[in-house]
Amino acid sequence: MQHCYIYMKKLLKNKKIRETSFRLEVLKVLSENENPISMDYLEQSLPKFDRITLYRTIKTFLDKGLIHEVLIAGESKKIALCSVECNEENHIHHLEHVHFFCENCKETFCLEIEKVPTIIIPNHSINSFEIQAKGICQNCK
Amino acid sequence: MQHCYIYMKKLLKNKKIRETSFRLEVLKVLSENENPISMDYLEQSLPKFDRITLYRTIKTFLDKGLIHEVLIAGESKKIALCSVECNEENHIHHLEHVHFFCENCKETFCLEIEKVPTIIIPNHSINSFEIQAKGICQNCK
DNA sequence: ATGTAAATGTAACAATGTTGCATTTAATAA
DNA sequence: TTATTAAATGCAACATTGTTACATTTACAT
Q: Which residue in the set B68, B74, B124 is minimally distant from A135, CB to CB?
C-alpha cells in the first residue's frame, strides 16, 4: 500500500498537481477501481472529506489530464484514471481506448482495442475522438 | 409551416406517441434546429410551457426513440432528433452517425460519415456504438 | 524557517432533474 | 356526438448535482 502512495505521488508530480492528503485519497479510490466510477460513488467513498473540495479536485484532475469523463447515454457521468499517455494538451486517452457499457450488468468499462479505424469527416479536421459501445461484456456472455 | 406540423404529427403517430400541442411545440423547436440543443435552450424557447412537463416529454421522446442524447465531455447534455431509422428497440441512430464538437465555435453537430469502421472488442458483443469527435468544423476552417 | 500562492471548509446559492397529486386532454367505445 | 378512461399536464415541493465567495489552512520554493 505504501508503494501505491509513492506511485500516486509521482503521478501528481508528473501532472504538476500539488500534493495534498485529500488528493491522494481521491487518487486512491480511483486507482482501486478498475472501471469508471460515478461522482456519487466517489463521494460515498470519502465520507470524512468535503463535497465541494471533491468537485474542485475532480475539475483540477480533469484539467490536468489525470482523469477523463466517461459519458454513456442514459447513464450518470463517470470518471476514470487516464492511461499514462494523456497530458494537458490532449485529454483524450489513447486512440485504442473504448468506453463499453454492458446492457446486462450495467457496468461501464474502459477497454483497449487493437485495430482502431481511421475516421474521416469531409471538410472537418479531427483532433481526437472517442468511441462509446454498448453490448454484452465478457463476464455476462 | 402547416406542412411542417403535418409531418410532425406523422412522426408522433409513427412512434406511437400521443399527439398534444405541447409535444408539437417541442418537436417544432427540435426540427427548427439542425444541430443538437441543450435542455436550457429548449426551455427558453418554450417560455409559456411548464418545465416539468418538458422533462417528461423529453423522457418520452427518448424512450420512444424519437430523439437521442448527445454527450460531449465538458459540454452540457444536448438532444437532437433521431434520423428516421431509429426505433424503440435501437435508440442509437444509424452507424454512420457521428457527434462532432468544434473546438473553435463550440458548436455540436450530428454528422453522417460514409465509411464506418468495424469495431471489434475481443470476447464482447457490440450491439451499437457511437463516435464522438472533436476538432475544427467546416465553417471554422 | 518563512512568505506566498494554492487548497480547503463552510455557507449560501444556482442549475438540473424528480415525485405526488389534482386537473385537463386525447383517443376509444357507445 | 357524447361518455369513458387512461394518459398528459401544471403546480408544489423536493432531491440531486454543481458553483461562488470568503476566511482559514497547507504545500512548497526561497
A: B124
B105 versus B84: the higher-pLDDT residue is: B105
A120 with B141: Cβ contact below 8 A? no
How large is the average pLDDT for residues A53-61? Answer: 98
Domain made up of B2-135: CATH architecture: Orthogonal Bundle (1.10)
Calculate mean pLDDT across residues A24-45.
95
Segment B51-91, tens digit of pLDDT: 999 999 999 999 999 999 999 999 999 999 987 655 555 54
Interface test with B, best of A107, A114, A131 (most B CBs within 10 A): A131
Domain-wise residue ranges, chain B: 2-135
The predicted structure's pLDDT at residue A78: 97
Write the DSSP assignment of chain B as a string of letters. Answer: -HHHHHHHHHHHHHTT----HHHHHHHHHHHH-SS-EEHHHHHHH-TTS-HHHHHHHHHHHHHTTSEEEE--TTS--EEEEPPTT--SS--S--TTEEEEEETTT--EEEEE-S-PPP---TT-EEEEEEEEEEEE-TTT-
For chain A, the residue count is: 141
